[in-house]
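Narrative summary of target 7.
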Amino acid sequence: MREQRYNKIKNVAFKRQGNLTVILNNVHDPHNIGAVLRTCDSIGIKEIYVLNNDETLNENNLVLGKKSAASARKWVDTFYYTDVEKCIRDIRENYTFIYGTHLNSEAISMYDLDMKKSIALVFGNEHSGISEEVVKHLDGNFIIPQVGMVQSLNISVAVAVTLYEAYRQRESAGFYRDNPTLSSIQKDILLNDYIERHNERYKGRLMKEK
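Modeled conformation, tokenized:
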């Protein structure tokens, strides 16, 4: 491995945000999932969760969009769940708060949400939103301010807009200069893992429930 490539991988690994993730609830379009992976990689998210608790969704047709993800699926782990309780329980082990894009009277603006804390952000299906089974586990809700006639964004766009607000908040707080979300040991483990992925031509995969 060339030194330039090693330094790039090290820089990426050391800036990964260990306390920020995304949950996609009943989002099954591979192009949208791929686009989300690409955005997550760009702002330093190391893993996402795909939770499908809609029985009409066919797991066999769920793939990670190769073109829309570019090579991000190689660097961002994707965990797949069909059991809501198990998914939420596993997420709670690593993330303190769960906020969703479920519109209700108590929903706050995305810009008023503190995304520097340990947080998982839930985005639902474009048509039906976040399922009721997931809504009951949320610690709060947020909206993306809009002033247009349609008042709706594509799911991958909604994720991108939200995550770049998270990036703005975290960058201002120095999270990308002196990353407090991962310990030195965790950074080294992640670096070694990424080096292995580079050497083995790791392509990324959809990982089942842990």
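Residues 140 and 202 are 36 Å apart (CA to CA).
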